[in-house]
Design a protein that fits this description.
The chain is α/β, with parallel strands linked by helices. Helix content is about 35%, strand content about 25%. The strands form 2 sheets. Strands 6-7-8-3-9-10 form a 6-stranded mixed sheet, sandwiched between helices. A 4-stranded antiparallel sheet has the order 2-1-4-5, with helices on one face. Helix 3 packs parallel to helix 6.
């Protein structure tokens, strides 16, 4: 697997690490470091239990890493701030499980997304963006969120995060449990979000779809970053293909040396 890669995008916007995190005696993250540039889309790949969700929670201020870590956004260290201050700084997280307010309407969920002070003057603009990305939300704006399909709820979760005018949008397994056709729609929307200049950090089991929209990727195993590279390099790496893309292992029988 690729061990490192130079970032070829713009100015660094998020710089984090080394992040270590324990849940009791269990070491979930072991000195993880990564960066995301302005406007860049980065994917984190790894098996279940690799620590990907824990990493996003640490970057969003939901869990406290061990001393020595830093989470820098635009030169400001966010660690030590309460979690509700991270959206004010420009970080929005769409968690696994979506985390929408099920008893509220679509419109009410979206309105709550614009609660941060810097987003309020742009609420109408962001709402237009969300409805353009996800027309079904416009059609269902008065519908109670819990009565929507899983795909529609995921659209709402992403839309609510966009209402906060984030500099960095983080998504934890956005296509989990969705039908293939809905997954295709979702990644088409993420590709359009990328075009707006918002940076994306995506944890996703659908490796092919996520690499298709990403500029770079990191590989995680057992709480550590074990490799990184451009999306093209990762797609073309034999070890990555075998581990994540379902490629057959090389063999002497098909003319490739093991």
């Amino acid at each position: 697997m690729p061990k490192s890669s130079a970032r070829i995008w713009g100015t660094t916007m998020l710089s984090a690490g080394p992040i270590s995190l324990h849940y009791g005696k269990h070491l979930a993250l072991d000195g993880v470091s990564l960066d995301v540039a302005d406007g860049e889309t980065v994917v984190v790949l790894g098996a279940n239990g690799a620590g990907k969700s824990s990493l996003l929670k640490a970057l969003a201020g939901l869990v406290k890493p061990a001393p020595g870590a830093r989470v820098m956004l635009g030169g400001d260290d966010l660690l030590g701030r309460p979690a509700h201050k991270y959206p004010e700084a420009g970080i929005a997280l769409v968690p696994e499980g979506r985390g929408i307010f099920g008893e509220l309407t679509v419109a009410e969920n979206l309105e709550l997304g614009a609660y941060v002070s810097h987003a309020r003057p742009h609420e109408a603009r962001q709402l237009a963006l969300v409805f353009d990305l996800f027309p079904r939300l416009a059609e269902r704006r008065q519908q109670i969120a819990r009565t929507m399909s899983g795909g529609e709820q995921q659209m709402l979760a992403i839309g609510r995060a966009l209402m906060s005018c984030p500099r960095l949008l983080m998504l934890d397994e956005p296509s989990l449990g969705l039908a293939p056709i809905v997954t295709t729609e979702l990644f088409a929307a993420l590709a359009r979000i990328r075009q707006t200049g918002i940076a994306l950090l995506v944890v996703e089991q659908n490796v092919k779809a996520s690499l298709a929209i990403a500029h770079r990727g990191y590989l995680m195993e057992a709480g550590r970053i074990t490799g990184s590279g451009t999306s093209d390099a990762l797609r073309g790496d034999v070890a990555v293909q075998q581990a994540f893309l379902g490629a057959a292992a090389p063999s002497v029988e098909n003319g490739v040396s093991p």
